Fold this sequence. Notes:
Two copies of one chain form a homodimer.
Chain A: H1 3-12, H2 19-30, H3 37-43, H4 49-61, E1 65-68, E2 77-80, E3 86-90, E4 95-99, H5 105-115, E5 118-129
Parallel strand pairs in A: 3-5
Antiparallel strand pairs in A: 1-2, 3-4
Helix pairs in contact in A: 1-2, 2-4, 3-4
The structure holds a DNA duplex (30 and 30 nucleotides).
Amino acid sequence: xxxxxxxxxxxAHGLKSTFQRLSILEYLMxxxxxxxxxxxxxxxxxxxxxxxxxTLDKLVDVGIIIVIDTLKDDKRHYDYYGEPHYHIINSNTNxxxxxxNFDVAPLFEAARQVSGLNITGxxxxxxxxxxxxxx
Amino acid sequence: xxxxxxxxxxxAHGLKSTFQRLSILEYLMxxxxxxxxxxxxxxxxxxxxxxxxxTLDKLVDVGIIIVIDTLKDDKRHYDYYGEPHYHIINSNTNxxxxxxNFDVAPLFEAARQVSGLNITGxxxxxxxxxxxxxx
DNA sequence: AACTAAATTAGAATAATTCTAAAAGAGGGA
DNA sequence: TCCCTCTTTTAGAATTATTCTAATTTAGTT
Lengths: 135, 135
């Protein structure tokens, strides 16, 4: 992961580059674990927890990452959002799978028709269970 | 709203009928406000806040209602889930619109293909802004 | 190199939600 | 109808993820 690229991403969204932001962004881009603020802080322990939260908020605001807060653990999980995608959550394990094999255009159009709004984004979570488990 | 019907709904999901559960369920069925626990407690002030939370958890567990916790206000909102539907959120006002003009079957099939899971449910939030507002 | 607005930080504060343990109630059976 | 047992309700305390504060440091520009 070239440092240059990370700086470019931040700059493209109007964010100053700092050691902390570069580290956190790289962390999110290279981990598929959908971590919480605390999990990031455990691994990047030189960065204060306040900065972890501040930075995550900023990255969410500009759309670089998104929040997943529909898990049962009462914590916010974060996900690098380079390309739009949806989430499949295994209710047996709470594992989150990224997927993009679905065209959201018809859904956007349906939402526009109902609401009259300009659609700007979406959050989709699909829940499932292991096929051999009762529920 | 016949009391009988409310009891039937609870019973069909294996929940005992209590005055508190009947009141909270009726409240959710007759309000389109997607209330928080606190909002429900404000209106049903004879019911303790602990019971509001306990009951909401139970109703979510059996699938009678669902949680919406992707708003910016850091509170959980609850929604009667008589029929499956998705949510359109106006980012200017945080208003939540219920909509069902979209067939989720293709999305379920896509998710099944990717994950191999038995799909059990979904949460969809579509975000939009008023057309005449920049963003 | 200096300047200024923005970012970082430690620690305190907040507040939504959960927990505890005691009292009340629901529903089934006799 | 009256127990009986298990579940539900409750007030208030406890928890904890997240936010706030105010002082320090830093990034990016002149």
